Amino acid sequence: MNMIYDVMILGAGPAGLSAALYAGRSGLSVLLIEKGADGGQIAVTDEIENYPGQMPEGESGASLIKRMSAQAERFGSVRVRDQIQSVDFNGEVKKLQGEKEIYQGRYVIIAAGAHARPIGCEGEDKYRGSGISYCATCDANFFRDLEVYVAGGGDAAVEEAIYLTRFARKVTIIHRRDKLRAVKAIQERAFSNPKIDFLWDSVVEEVHGAGILQGLTVRNVKTGEKKQIEADPKDGMIGLFGFVGNIPNSALFQGILDMDENGYIRADEEMQTSVTGVYVAGDIRVKSVRQVVTAAADGAIAAVHISGKCN
């Protein structure tokens, strides 16, 4: 591809789509690169209640992202499905080496997001897709009328536990602390749901089963006591969903951009990274609040500042 774009955007989640909208509306030539489906983690979120301007009765992440994508496309973003393998941020023209071809642009906005952190229990890899999941919206239907456990205590964990009650017979939240970290409104919904139970001060230490997940070993972090949880013989299996945080998709930029100890990319208030001409937006950057609204704001800020330099 010989075209040199004004700005290349990596990732079509809320941050990337917002950046594409603002950059395109400013008259910049925009290349939006996404390896999979638009939306990132929000695309598999069942219910959104706190995004300004959304449907007031509530809506899914997929429906919100569909409208965001349409807005971005309205202002002329060129779309590419590709997996970026390496980057060259030296010089005025930045280069992104994809599986399909090389892309070039004067500015880059990294909006690659993050992915679910593993639960960290022994045997976890063996039962991924065979009882262990990290996406309730994707996999809840496979656990209809079964007992399900959720590891985590933040917003995502509690919201997904509530969603799972539509399918599972019983949902137990396993949390390493003695109180939830989720916002009060979400906690109240969980505590009032008769299908949700709690295991406090506990972590999943090990999982086991004959081909499918059939049992958990849960350890109390205060007493050290271990509890064995086994599937009801009539069910034959149980479910375990992990929502214990995220890992930024920043491995591609290690040693190139300044990051914190967890791999999140550092940026100034204009979203400028440690490399001139390279910006970052959304969950992949160092920040205190990671929500759809803050991701969209990051993308808009980055695009506006790039626009000011191009025009």
UniProtKB/TrEMBL annotation:
Domain FAD/NAD(P)-binding stretches: 5-299
Top-level taxonomic group: Bacteria
Cofactor(s) for this UniProt protein: FAD
Main enzyme class: oxidoreductase
Enzyme Commission numbers on file: 1.8.1.9
Catalytic activity: [thioredoxin]-dithiol + NADP(+) = [thioredoxin]-disulfide + NADPH + H(+)
Pfam families: Pyr_redox_2
GO MF annotation terms: thioredoxin-disulfide reductase (NADPH) activity
Entry-linked InterPro entries: FAD/NAD-bd_sf, FAD/NAD-binding_dom, Ferredoxin-NADP_redctase_2, Thioredox_Rdtase
Keywords: FAD, Flavoprotein, Oxidoreductase, Redox-active center
Keyword match NAD: no
PANTHER family: THIOREDOXIN REDUCTASE 1-RELATED-RELATED (PTHR48105)
Family in the record: Belongs to the class-II pyridine nucleotide-disulfide oxidoreductase family.
Oligomeric form and interacting partners: Homodimer.
Protein name: Thioredoxin reductase
Name of the gene encoding the protein in the UniProt record: trxB
